[in-house]
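Regression check, iron/sulfur cluster case 338:
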Amino acid sequence: MINFHYARANDVADAVRQIAADPKAKFIAGGTNLVDLMKENVERSTRLIDITHLPLKSVEPTEDGGLRIGALVPNSDLAYHPLIAERYPLLGSALLAGASAQLRNMASTGGNLLQRTRCYYFYDTATPCNKREPGSGCSAINGVNRIHAILGASESCIAVHPSDMCVALAALDATVLVSGPAGARSIAMTDFHRLPGTTPQRDTNLQADEIVTAVELPAQGFAKNYTYLKVRDRLSYAFALVSVAAALDLDGGTIKEARLALGGVAHKPWRNTNAEAALRGKAAGRDAFAEAADIVLHDAKGHAHNAFKIDLARRVIVRALTQAANATPQSQSDKKIR
Ligand SMILES: Cc1cc2nc3c(=O)[nH]c(=O)nc-3n(C[C@H](O)[C@H](O)[C@H](O)COP(=O)(O)OP(=O)(O)OC[C@H]3O[C@@H](n4cnc5c(N)ncnc54)[C@H](O)[C@@H]3O)c2cc1C
Ligand code: SF4
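Current build output:
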């Protein structure tokens, strides 16, 4: 058993002061990931700073027509919030595809961003893992790697980021607001998570002494033509093998604007702006969707047990875009377009 101190933060400045004073401290929000990691001896924090009393629990419109989501808004409250349901249903769908109802009640927006990989070896302290113990090696590369990355991996780590919410946020062009000793700053969602490179121990570009205070969504929510399609081993309560957030702005049958982000395939939500650019101006149909899938998967690389994900991702991209174009967001892809 590892002893740790427990402290409560009174406000954001106090939280920043406390974390900056102790490099081994960790914030705790819902605790649904951190407590598991502590029980497994993967996280060995000596101080937990409870941030659940901070005033970061509201969802508010922004001046530029977007929405600001406090870092402590629970995943379930966010999924069912009337403004999300009306304007950003892609985000609501992604949230509801994650975990279970009980977990979503506890899980916070900030904690969801910072949740760690579900790579089996990361959780198994008897095996080498560069993410857990830098320099020890990667057990997954030549091990059981069925759930691992097909895009953006490195020789050091082939883990994937497990979040569903983050895939929708990447597609929606969200921004993460953070505060630290040097003040507040914002990070584009697509720059928030990192590729593993030679430093897989770092999941994100958040500094150790910073706190996530909110996530901001821009005005455009793609509420009409969207889909979050998640393929997993069980119908619920399982992480994505491949997931796709697809959003389209259509002018008749022509694509004016497209968004495409994947989950379960890389160390970060995998948004591909080249594929989005290729969709712009095209007729919304199988040819354009298949071309977009080819662009996304051009550099995909499988390992011994996960090569199936490449073809799976191709099919899920085409199906998600088809559902989005048909305005049939939930797995109703039977209706043919063109
Ligand atoms: C059985 C199970 C199944 C799951 N299935 C899914 C799934 O299918 N899809 C999915 O997306 N997720 C899934 N999850 C993960 C779940 O969504 C996350 O555990 C949850 O979102 C984490 O939020 P939390 O508030 O509990 O974070 P915590 O556990 O409290 O914290 C997680 C990390 O975030 C840090 N942190 C928390 N808040 C902040 C902040 N404001 N600023 C800076 N750092 C912060 C903590 O220090 C910690 O490192 C599952 C979890 C479990 C246990
Ligand atoms: S894939 Fe990453 S998290 Fe998994 S064992 Fe290798 S280094 Fe560790």
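Comparison notes: The pocket of iron/sulfur cluster (ligand 2) is lined by residues 117, 119, 121-122, 129-131, 138-140, 157-159, 200 (CB under 6 Å). The chain has a mean pLDDT of 96. No diff flagged against the previous build.
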